[in-house]
Design goal:
The protein is mainly alpha-helical. About 50% of the residues lie in helices and about 10% in strands. Bound molecules: zinc ion.
């Protein structure tokens, strides 16, 4: 009895996915994309430290 085809729940967003590895890669890419967007946004406004 093997259940290798059972969907796994993502520990981050609790989404059911067959390929958790690919899902995590999507997470990494999403987080990186947001980080880049925030960095560019802050750079555009100018580094105002306060
Ligand atoms: Zn997820």
């Amino acid at each position: 009895m093997e259940q290798s085809a059972a969907p796994m729940a993502c520990p981050d967003c609790h989404a059911l996915t067959d390929d958790l590895d690919a899902h995590e890669r999507w997470h990494t890419r999403l987080v990186r994309d947001i980080a880049v967007a925030v960095t560019q946004h802050e750079a555009a406004r100018g580094s105002r430290t306060g």
